Write the structure tokens for this entry.
Amino acid sequence: MTKLAEMKCEACQLDAPKVTESELAQLLPLIPDWDVNVRDSIMQLERVYKFKNFKLAMVFTNKLAELAEEEFHHPGILTEWGKVTVTWWSHSVKGLHHNDFIMASKTDQLMD
């Protein structure tokens, strides 16, 4: 399998398939620091990144914003002193799509 971070997001239409339970089981080990949360019946990927201060958290947030624009797939981002909480899900399918796992992996690479 190609590394997730090397893949590109595809345009996600309303009828795009959500990841299946078996796909979820295969994809989650590829992004081990991410949690699956369900909010308002919508499955989402979430991770908290920690930083030494607010300025470094903002640098990361801005890098993530640039990445999201490049891929045209946008996360929930909560930037606080010393941490950034990132949440990926596909609004159009109201759940998780393969794109969310690609973006979670790409987000992890921003820390390298």
Q: What stands out?
A: The longest helix spans residues 54-71. The two ends are 22 Å apart (CA to CA). The domain at 20-109 is CATH 3.30.1360.20 (Gyrase A; domain 2). The chain has one domain: 20-109.
